[in-house]
Amino acid sequence: MSIRAKSEVRVHADLESLSKAAAESLAAIAAASVTDRSWFSIALSGGETPRALFRVLRTQYEKRVPWIRGEIFWVDERYVPSQDPRSNYGMAKSEWIAGSPIPRENVHPMATDLPTLEEAARQYERVLRAHFLRQWPSIDLIVLGLGADCHTASLFPRSQALAETTRWVTWVEAPAEPSQRLTLTLPAINHASNVHFLVSGEAKAEALRRVLEDEVDVANCPASGVSPSDGRVAWWVDEAAASKLSHQYRRSISLAGRFQGSPESRDPCTSVQDTTSLPEKS
User: 238 - beta bridge partners?
Assistant: First the structure.
C-alpha cells in the first residue's frame, strides 16, 4: 500500500461541510500569502464539487478574504464560449465571481475564442508567465477535482499531455464532451504551494482509493501524479467518497475534519479576520 507522504486527508460528513472547511483553509492560505508578499494566487477547476465551494465563498467569505489582493486563474477549461453552461469560467463567474469584490482585472479565464487550441494554450501560458517570473508557476493554491476514471484537471488516463515536461499549459482531446480542452500540465500543477482536492460522492470512492492507496500510476491514474515538489496536498472528502478506503488507511487519518499528520502541518489559523480594511494592491 502506498500512503502519500505529503497528502493530508480530511473526511467530512457531506459536500456542504467539506466545502466550508476547504473555504476556511483557502482563506488562511490567502491571508498568509498576503502577509508574506502582499498578494495571493488561486487556480480553479470546474465541476459540481467546486460549485459548492464557490457558493460558500460568495455567501460567507466576501469580507473574510483580501480579494483585492487576489489573482484568480484556471486549471483547465472546456473549449466552449463562456456563456455555455459547460464553461468552467462561466460557472465560477455565475456562482461566485460576478457577485464578489474581486477586481475584474484580477480574473484571468482561459481564452476559448481563438482559432486553434494551440494558440489558446500558448496565450494562457503567456498570461501565467507575466505573473510568475520563474521557471514554473508558484501558484499559492490550486483547487482540483477527481474523476471516477482518476483524471484531474483535464489530464485523462493515457493522454499524451501526461508526458509534457516543459510547457505550463497544453490542449487535449478528452474522452468526454466537450472533448476540446485546455489544461495546466502536471509539472505546472506540481510547483504549486498548495493543492486542494475536493471529492464528493460514492461514484468517486474507487478513484480516491486508487490515488491514496495504490502505487503511483500516472498513465492510468493521472491524479496520482499530483505531488508538489515543495508544497502540500490536502484532500477534502466526504464519507461517501471515503467509503472504499481500507480500514488500515482510515485508521491513519483523523475523521470529523482533522488533518492527518503532525500539528505543524495543519492550517496556521483557525479563524480569519475581516480584511476589507487592507489597502489596495499597488
Answer: 12
Alpha helices in the chain (DSSP H): 15-37, 48-60, 88-95, 117-131, 186-189, 205-213, 247-251
Residue 72, C-beta contacts closer than 8 angstroms, at least 6 positions apart = 41, 42, 43, 44, 97, 102, 106, 107, 108
Tens-digit pLDDT profile for residues 136-170:
999 999 999 999 999 999 999 999 999 999 999 99
For residue 206, which amino acid is it? E
> 28: helix, coil or strand?
helix
pTM score over 0.85: yes
Distance (Å, whole) CA 104 – CA 102 = 6
CATH topology of domain 1-178: Rossmann fold (3.40.50)
C-alpha dihedral sign at 267, 22, 134, 189: positive
Domain boundaries, the chain: 1-178
The DSSP symbol for 200 reads -
Across the chain, the runs of DSSP E, i.e. the strands, are: 7-12, 40-44, 70-74, 76-78, 141-144, 169-173, 180-184, 194-199, 232-238
